[in-house]
C-alpha cells in the first residue's frame, strides 16, 4: 500500500510540474511563498543596462550597459541569461555605437514581430546622449536602428530618457536627465504601428516635477511613475512623489507617496496580483537598500515584498509576465562605486504537502 502511495505521489508531482505557469501562478502568494535565490553570476560586472524578459524564448536579456565607469568599457552585444540552463551567453547582435547606457524600453509588436525596443543612451564617461531608437530581435539575434524615429525628447543631444513603460503596444517615455544641467518633465508616446517618421507623439500632460532615472511600470489601464531623481547643486537626489498616468485621457494623478525616496532602479508589474514592485535602488542614504516596495493600485497603499539579496542601483531588471519570476543582474554595490556581477532571481513556489497525498 505504501509503495502504491509513493507512486501516486510521484505521479501527482509530475502533474503539478506539468501545469502551465499561468495556471499555477493564480494560486501562488508571492509574499509568503516567494523568495530570492542566487543564480550564475554575469561573466563580467554590468551596470546601467536595460533588462528585458522575452516571453518568446523564456530568456532574460541585458542590453547595453558597461563593465566599469571608464570610457570604452561599454557593452555593444546583448547578454542573454537562460533560466533553464542557468547560463549566460554573449550574443552576436551588435549595437552600432557605444551609446548604450541608461536606455529605457520594452517589447513592442512591429507588424507581428515582437522586438525589444530601446530609446536613447550614453557612452561611459560621456556628457552627450543619443536620440536613437533601436530594436533587438532575440530570435534573429539582430540589432536594427530606426533612423527615421529618433526620440524628439533629446533634440539637444544631451538628454537621457527618464523612465519607460509599454501599454497597449505603445512605449511611453517619462522625463529625462539633461546631463549636468537638470531634469525634464515631458511625456512621449512611441507607436510602432505608425508609419516610420511619425511614430512619436508628445503628450499634453507633463510630470508635476521634472525627474530622471524613474522607476516606471504599467498595470491595468495605467502607468505608475514612482520617485525618480532630481538634480540640485550638481547632485542627483532620490525623490518620493508617486504618480499615475492615464494614456487614454492623457492625465496625471498623484497617488500615495512611496514610503522611501527611490530612483535609479526599475519597477515591474507583479502578474500574480497586478501590484507594482520597486526593487532596491537609489543613492541618497540609506539607499540603496534591499527593500522591495509594493504599490497596490486597488487600495492606493504601499507594503513590502521579500527583500532582494543584494542592495544596488542602476541594474537591469525584468519580470516574467506570467509566473512572476524576477531577474535582477549586476548594478552598483551599496557604496555606489563598484559594479557587480551578481545575478538573483525571485520565484514564487507552491510547496507540495505530502500529507495531502496520504503519506506520513
Give an overview of the whole structure:
This protein is mostly beta strands. It has one domain: Kelch-type beta propeller (Neuraminidase, 6 Propeller), CATH 2.120.10. It is 6% helix and 37% strand.
Descriptive key words:
Neuraminidase, disordered N terminus, 26 strands, mainly beta, 4-stranded antiparallel β-sheet, 360 residues
Specify the overall morphology: globular
Count of discrete alpha- or pi-helical segments spanning 4 or more residues: 2
Poorly predicted residue ranges: 1-25, 354-360
The helix/strand order is HHEEEEEEEEEEEEEEEEEEEEEEEEEE
Summarize the structure.
The protein is mostly beta strands and 360 residues long. It has helices at residues 2-18, 21-24, and strands spanning 34-38, 50-54, 59-63, 79-82, 87-90, 104-110, 113-119, 133-137, 142-145, 159-167, 170-178, 182-190, 200-202, 216-219, 222-226, 229-232, 235-238, 242-246, 251-254, 267-270, 275-279, 292-296, 301-305, 317-319, 326-329, 343-348.
Topology record:
Blueprint: H1 2-18, H2 21-24, E1 34-38, E2 50-54, E3 59-63, E4 79-82, E5 87-90, E6 104-110, E7 113-119, E8 133-137, E9 142-145, E10 159-167, E11 170-178, E12 182-190, E13 200-202, E14 216-219, E15 222-226, E16 229-232, E17 235-238, E18 242-246, E19 251-254, E20 267-270, E21 275-279, E22 292-296, E23 301-305, E24 317-319, E25 326-329, E26 343-348
Antiparallel strand pairs: 1-26, 2-3, 3-4, 4-5, 6-7, 7-8, 8-9, 10-11, 11-12, 12-13, 14-15, 15-18, 16-17, 18-19, 20-21, 21-22, 22-23, 24-25, 25-26
Amino acid at each position: 500500500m505504501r509503495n502504491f502511495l509513493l507512486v501516486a505521489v510521484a505521479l501527482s508531482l509530475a502533474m503539478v510540474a506539468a501545469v502551465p505557469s499561468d495556471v499555477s501562478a493564480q494560486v501562488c502568494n508571492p509574499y509568503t511563498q516567494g523568495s530570492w535565490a542566487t543564480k550564475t553570476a554575469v561573466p563580467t560586472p554590468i551596470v546601467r543596462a536595460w533588462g528585458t524578459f522575452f516571453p518568446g524564448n523564456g530568456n532574460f536579456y541585458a542590453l547595453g550597459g558597461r563593465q566599469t565607469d571608464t570610457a570604452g568599457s561599454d557593452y555593444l552585444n546583448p547578454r542573454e541569461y537562460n533560466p533553464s540552463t542557468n547560463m549566460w551567453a554573449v550574443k552576436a547582435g551588435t549595437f552600432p555605437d557605444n551609446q548604450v547606457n541608461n536606455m529605457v524600453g520594452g517589447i513592442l509588436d512591429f507588424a507581428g514581430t515582437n522586438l525589444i525596443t530601446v530609446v536613447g543612451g550614453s557612452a561611459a564617461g560621456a556628457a552627450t546622449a543619443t536620440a536613437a531608437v533601436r530594436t533587438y530581435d532575440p530570435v534573429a539575434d539582430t540589432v536594427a536602428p530606426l533612423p527615421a524615429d529618433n526620440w524628439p525628447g533629446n533634440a539637444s543631444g544631451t538628454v537621457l530618457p527618464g523612465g519607460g513603460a509599454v501599454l497597449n503596444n505603445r512605449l511611453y517615455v517619462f522625463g529625462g536627465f539633461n546631463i549636468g544641467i537638470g531634469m525634464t518633465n515631458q511625456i512621449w508616446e512611441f507607436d510602432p504601428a505608425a508609419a516610420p517618421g511619425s511614430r512619436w507623439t508628445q503628450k499634453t500632460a507633463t510630470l508635476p516635477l521634472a525627474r530622471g532615472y524613474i522607476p516606471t511600470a504599467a498595470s491595468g489601464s495605467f502607468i505608475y511613475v514612482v520617485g525618480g531623481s532630481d538634480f540640485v547643486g550638481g547632485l542627483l537626489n532620490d525623490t518620493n512623489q508617486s504618480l499615475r498616468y492615464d494614456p487614454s485621457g492623457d492625465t496625471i494623478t498623484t497617488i500615495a507617496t512611496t514610503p522611501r525616496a527611490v530612483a535609479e532602479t526599475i519597477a515591474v508589474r507583479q502578474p500574480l496580483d497586478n501590484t507594482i514592485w520597486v526593487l532596491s535602488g537609489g543613492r541618497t542614504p540609506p539607499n540603496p537598500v534591499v527593500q522591495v516596495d509594493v504599490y497596490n493600485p486597488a487600495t492606493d497603499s504601499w507594503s513590502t515584498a521579500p527583500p532582494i539579496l543584494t542592495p544596488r542601483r542602476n541594474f537591469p531588471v525584468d519580470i516574467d509576465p506570467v509566473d512572476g519570476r524576477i531577474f535582477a543582474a549586476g548594478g552598483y554595490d551599496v557604496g555606489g562605486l563598484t559594479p557587480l556581477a551578481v545575478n538573483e532571481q525571485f520565484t514564487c513556489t507552491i510547496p507540495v504537502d505530502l500529507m495531502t497525498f496520504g503519506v506520513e
